[in-house]
Amino acid sequence: MTRWEESADIIFKNGIIFNPYTCEWLNEDFAVRNGIFIGTGPGYSGKEEVDLKSSYVCPGFIDAHVHIESSLLTPYEYARLVMQHGTTTVVADPHEIANVCGTAGIEYILQAHENQPLDIMVMLPSCVAATPIDECAITLTADLLLPFMNRDGVLGLGEMMNVPGVLSEEPLVMEKLILTSIRDGHAPFLTGTLLDQYIATGLQSDHETTVKSEGKEKLQKGMFLFIREGSTERNLHTLIPLVNACSSSRCSFCTDDRHADMLVTSGHIDDCIRKAIGEGCEPELAYRMATLSPAERFRLYDRGAISAGRIADFCVIDDIKKCNVHATYKNGRLVLPEHFRKEKTHTLKNWPFHAKIPSPEEIRITGTGTARVVKIQEGQIGTKAEYIQLSSDEIPDLKRDILKIVVVSRYYPENIGVGLVRGLGLTSGAMASSVSHDSHNIIAVGTSDNEIISAIAMVVKNKGAMVALNGKEEVCLPLSLAGLMSELPYENVHKGLESIHHLTKACGAIKDPFMYLSFLALSVIPELRVTTKGVFDVNIFSNVPLFMDEEKPADT
Fold it and tell me: Where are the beta strands (DSSP E) in 310-366?
């Protein structure tokens, strides 16, 4: 026996290991020393043995793209929750907290990377503000991002949402792209020569694909495809047929934006695996997409497989198709509740929250004619532009499900935008939230101006919250950390969301209405949005009047 063979700390015996290199399951023991796999197969001995009792063993799951802030949890509570589901690494873009807190927000996430078991790898926010017309605490230029590039846990540049800036090769955009060789893209509905041009600037991946033909083109042109399954952005059913033995190395799962309640009830990357298998994907390809594929995309050659020299991150499951995780190991040690220390007092202070409560006059709509109405698409964050003949006196129009939407700036109190939305389903009451991608202004919708103003007032009072009300009934989930995240345990946040959703359901709303609401001001996803400046047409990248001067032409 060699010195190498006898030097293990722990031998894990009687496991059925998933090998993502060959996509097969192997009955092999494996050995760990100092948190690293030192080998598989017979011939190893160690100080300790763990009998896996013929359970299936997978490398730790990796989320290829996520905004932790969208869970409504602190990174510490997020880690405590997702690690129960076999996740050991997430690739996070902290652009939500960076929009609100600037570089201090990035520091906060990097600190969280160091102080709990989950590996939070960071892709630096490339678009803060999201576009030149958006509001934020501070514009993050290449000069401000550069000092982070060599920090532990930083992988590269996060999703480049400024597609017009890329295509026109704006100098400020190009300065960011040259900071690193790992660059995530953001290219909804981009195809043909424009997609070629986008890729040629160095953008390598996309998680905004919602159409199968678009996903196929992006794979054919060499992009990495992140198949997203979030609370409202559910693209797995559409895109999973693109996965085969050849393409699986270029495909990964991501959750992007998934609220705490979905994490509790459905899971994390384990949920993506189950759904993919349920849609007909070969189990081995689904597990590869959750492990080695994202590791190789981000050049994380120290993880993603149970093989010599890699970090000993893995999870134990009892059924390949159901992917029920009953134990997660980080650095070769079982993850236990006591490994998650309560977060110390965070360093974030004095984030901007200058929003005011609007008056009835400031949110009043006047006019008659053809109105531009934002139409929600269930299961997507993309919207459609609808052109509907109406009078402002008819708002709200509950029969046609047309409601007023109000956006109040958290940065500049005088900026208040108003528009119309269709598809939320409210027949009574109102909703408001300080989570509104990516600027995170207050966004509200309701069936009367008084209720809209009351809901906004409650958000302002808490300096950040999710609020639902219906008559005298009110439910509020305070978001005490930057108006984005709750500092409560995830169990409490889950209960708070259940209470809110119970009320919104009683008001007639669609499922997960707050997640849909949170994207209605996002000016980088087609087609129509509402910002603090009013209605915004993403296709022409311009603010437009609520009422059109003439009917929409039939051929457009």
Answer: 314-317, 325-330, 333-334
